[in-house]
TrEMBL record:
Matches recorded under Gene3D superfamilies: CheA-289, Domain 4, SH3 Domains
A biological process from GO: chemotaxis
Residue span(s) of domain CheW-like: 21-161
GO cellular component: cytosol
Protein name, per record: Purine-binding chemotaxis protein CheW
Lineage, highest ranks first: Bacteria, Bacillati, Bacillota, Clostridia, Eubacteriales
Source organism per UniProt: Hydrogenoanaerobacterium saccharovorans
Pfam families according to UniProt: CheW
Amino acid sequence: MQDNYEAISFAAGQEESESLDGKFLTFWTDNQLFGIPIADVVQIVGIQEITPVPEYPVYAKGIINLRGNIIPIIDVRLRLHRAEIEYNERTCIIVANLKETYIGFIVDAVDEVTDIDEKDICPPPRILGDNKNAFIAGVGKLAAKVVLLLDTEKILNQDEVEQLLCTEQ
């Protein structure tokens, strides 16, 4: 099911990657604003049919075939231990380059591409005990908004990435 979202491709050559520093794609999940570096974003597509995969982790909804590429799909809500909701017309998939692999992240809604100056980013809050904000790279301040900046390299560890991939034989 392809909604009214057009696929948005972000193809950045090495020369362009420097101009992407400080640019983030912001999105909503569970009424909270998150951001990821735009340099990690490959494209944004509307929610579509996802093929479930047996024995995938709970937060992994399955796979999609995107122009001949099999992409594992993660529900950000579930990965962040939030309540699952029914997908709607604003729900979309952000395809990101994660550890040299394409992974799709289901989010409630994409907000915008925005610049966040380094001076407007502070370290993530500390958590006492064994708990830590493993996924959060920093907190961005935008006018009246607070953006939790996710570290795409830490959303899944290497073992989790390998578990989600279809391996060639």
